[in-house]
């Protein structure tokens, strides 16, 4: 039997006094995208930071491909950056305005020493841009020349250029207008069909429903419910999940 892509065991994290996460356990199998939902302050961002190795857990641990991951070990952290990459909410602040898109997208190849020659770098950048639906000449242009949705595509190209297995996305569409959201969710879906597994935090349950096979609900740092997305949204068992669903704004019916 192959190990899950990600196994999170009894994860806990405390900033100062109060725990932000307690006893969080779940597994992510290859190709089974996971949505993480919960109210503001539930611990979603903290959990993503632990998955990315930006912080070490206070208790518990994370296995990647069956191997314990220690974010305190520099070599392990470097390997982890080729395993998991991130996309954040704001495509305006996450791209350096002084660098052209080619330079931005190739950054992981440079910092992780993954590309040996200039021509290999250019080829990999061009194929990442193509995979996110941007023209190859985008590499010569600068972030301010692109719309919010296109900038998020650039951020996604940068994340996939080292060919990670896991894409960790923190509210990747919430800064975008509705029609752009749909297209970015479609892009993430197509990348996950191509072999990438996505873990996404979103307060937009529509995004989670469209993208994720499984959903995990966090309330004040604890997992209150997890399971297949369709079943969880159709018949939420926990009162907190019902409350989250009830809070989704709906258009008034005529
Ligand atoms: N740097 C920090 N120092 C101290 N406490 C923090 C820090 N960052 C987060 N917290 C606390 O940890 C808890 C979880 O925060 P976290 O940002 O992970 O929640 P979240 O679910 O991502 O919220 P949001 O949806 O508002 O981003 C909250 O109680 C928060 O106040």
Automatic annotation (TrEMBL):
CDD domains: ABC_NikE_OppD_transporters. Transmembrane segments: none annotated. Pfam families: ABC_tran, oligo_HPY. The lineage of its organism: Bacteria, Bacillati, Actinomycetota, Actinomycetes, Micrococcales. Gene3D superfamilies: P-loop containing nucleotide triphosphate hydrolases (3.40.50.300). The keyword Protein biosynthesis does not apply. PROSITE patterns: ABC_TRANSPORTER_1 (PS00211), ABC_TRANSPORTER_2 (PS50893). One of its GO terms (molecular function) is ATP binding. This is ABC transporter ATP-binding protein. Residues 6-245 form the ABC transporter domain. The keyword Protease does not apply. Belongs to the ABC transporter superfamily. Keywords: ATP-binding, Nucleotide-binding, Transport.
């Amino acid at each position: 039997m192959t190990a899950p892509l990600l196994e999170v065991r009894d994860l806990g994290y405390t900033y100062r006094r109060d725990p932000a996460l307690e006893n969080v356990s779940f597994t992510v199998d290859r190709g089974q995208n996971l949505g993480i939902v919960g109210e503001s302050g539930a611990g979603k961002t903290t959990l993503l930071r632990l998955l990315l190795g930006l912080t070490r857990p206070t208790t518990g641990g994370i296995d990647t491909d069956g191997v314990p991951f220690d974010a305190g070990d520099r070599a392990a952290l470097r390997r982890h950056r080729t395993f998991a990459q991130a996309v954040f909410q704001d495509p305006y602040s996450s791209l350096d305005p002084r660098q052209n898109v080619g330079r931005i997208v190739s950054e992981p190849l440079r910092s992780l020493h993954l590309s040996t020659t200039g021509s290999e770098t250019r080829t990999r950048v061009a194929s990442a841009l193509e995979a996110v639906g941007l023209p190859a000449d985008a590499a010569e242009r600068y972030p301010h020349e692109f719309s919010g949705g296109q900038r998020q595509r650039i951020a996604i190209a940068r994340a996939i250029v080292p060919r990670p297995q896991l894409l960790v996305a923190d509210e990747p569409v919430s800064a975008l207008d509705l029609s752009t959201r749909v297209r970015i969710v479609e892009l993430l879906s197509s990348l996950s069909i191509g072999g990438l597994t996505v873990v996404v935090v979103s307060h937009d349950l529509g995004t989670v429903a469209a993208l994720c096979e499984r959903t995990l609900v966090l309330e004040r740092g604890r997992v209150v419910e997890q399971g297949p997305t369709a079943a969880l949204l159709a018949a939420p068992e926990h009162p907190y999940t019902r409350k989250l669903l009830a809070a989704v704004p709906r258009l008034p019916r005529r």
